[in-house]
Design a protein that fits this description.
By secondary structure, the chain is of the alpha/beta class. The chain folds into 2 domains: about 220 residues, Spore Coat Polysaccharide Biosynthesis Protein SpsA, Chain A (Alpha-Beta Complex), CATH 3.90.550; about 60 residues, no CATH class. It is about 40% helix and about 15% strand. Helix 11 crosses helix 12. The relative contact order is 0.11. Keywords: Glycosyltransferase, Membrane, Signal-anchor, Transferase, Transmembrane, Transmembrane helix.
Length: about 400
């Protein structure tokens, strides 16, 4: 009996050791299999990133099917986003897994929004429609605060009545910017470029410059008009917008005198936002949230955008010098450099005319030199021949 008992005891020990051995073998095989799956997953990582962005865009459109539906019924449906691989791309981005995606951008990949108001329909808006609007009729949309059938007809129903307040006030400015952003999200464009109604935009150069930036990377492109970043003091409203919202009273008190800093792209010069950045902004800026943040920080639309992008999302402003606003001296831009610029502007304050130096048409008929600039760049247009 004793021998039998000892035999059974040794047998159990042997079986236990064998079971442990099998367990280690199984774990080794599972680990290798998981590693193989990770390699496959990583090789497709960039495609997954693109898929996530496109999925988010589709979900946004499903939840906003009535967004400006009355306008879109009268226009051609915007084309689907195309991600093309091309050996001729001006820049290809290679991610850590070796997958290359072409950054090709053409005009139809860009959504261009122009903020305006009823007061300027017959002046600034008319000037745009007769000049650079003709370069991108299908891509440009005007965001205004009045129903104007005359300009609806002139723009092929590209006037969006935002129902925001009229005038140059913070609330109405943020409201219109929010509408522009939501409209862009409802399309499948790769870039959103915003301009003001006192801009002239050199469309071919805009397209050329955007080809240096990949739409599936987070890009905030523009130009500041101040020499140092905006500064503001931390407060409870700002802390509530940060990603970690569980701030204690002690932390709030400790940070109440803390200064935060961020850059912003001047709206009057124009700026561009990539699709990837717009998707990242959605939880903070879509469907009225942009206006709410503007109310909390008490700044206008372009500063609010910089606060969201630079401070909350930690995406830095990339300075693109060919953007220009009326806050710069237009006469400092040399004529031989006109073709390399993206945007121009103009202003007349008291006796100061801030306009580009270009001789073509009489100043009484072209006081802001926009017709002259347009015809210098694109003399083939009929308006240039007729004015000669």
């Amino acid at each position: 009996m004793l021998k039998t008992f000892m035999y059974m005891k040794n047998y159990r020990r042997i079986m236990m050791v064998f079971a442990i051995f099998l367990m280690y073998i199984s774990m080794y095989l599972i680990h290798n299999a998981y590693g193989s799956l990770c390699i496959i997953k990583n090789s497709e990582d960039n495609k997954s990133n693109v898929g996530d962005i496109e999925t988010a865009s589709r979900l946004y459109k499903v939840n906003n099917t009535n967004l400006f539906a009355d306008l879109l019924m009268n226009t051609t449906q915007m084309q689907n986003l195309r991600l093309e691989q091309s050996e001729e791309s001006s820049r290809d981005y290679t991610n850590t897994h070796g997958t290359e995606w072409s950054s090709n951008i053409d005009l139809d990949d860009i959504f261009i929004s122009i903020k305006t108001t009823k007061k300027y329909h017959n002046t600034r808006l008319k000037l745009i429609i007769e000049t650079w609007f003709q370069l991108a009729r299908d891509q440009i949309w005007f965001f205004t605060d009045d129903d104007d059938q005359v300009y609806q007809n002139l723009t092929n129903n590209h006037m969006v009545q935002t129902k925001c307040g009229q005038g140059h006030y913070r609330k109405s400015l943020c409201c219109k910017m929010n509408k522009e952003f939501d409209f862009f999200l409802s399309t499948s464009k790769k870039f959103w470029c915003h301009f003001d109604d006192d801009n002239y935009v050199n469309i071919p150069t805009l397209v050329k410059v955007l080809n240096d930036y990949h739409a599936y990377h987070e890009w905030y492109l523009g130009k500041p008009s101040i020499s140092s970043p905006i500064e503001m003091y931390m407060n409870a409203a700002i802390m509530s917008l940060e990603r970690n919202k569980n701030h204690s009273k002690d932390e709030l008190k400790r940070r109440e005198n803390e200064k935060i800093k961020f850059w912003f792209a001047t709206g009057g010069a124009g700026f561009c936002i990539s699709r990837a950045l717009a998707i990242k902004m959605m939880p903070l800026a879509s469907n009225g949230k942009f206006v709410a943040i503007g109310d909390k920080i008490r700044f206008p639309d372009d500063v609010t955008l910089g606060f969201i992008v630079e401070y909350l999302l930690k995406v830095p402003l990339t300075v693109v010098n060919p953007f220009h606003s009326h806050l710069e001296r237009m006469d400092h831009i040399e004529m031989e450099d006109f073709r390399d610029q993206i945007s121009f502007s103009y202003a007349h304050i008291k006796d100061d005319w801030n306009i580009v130096k270009v001789d073509r048409f009489d100043t009484t008929k072209d006081p802001y030199r926009i017709y002259s600039l347009h015809c210098y760049l694109f003399p083939q247009f009929d308006i240039c021949k007729n004015r000669q």
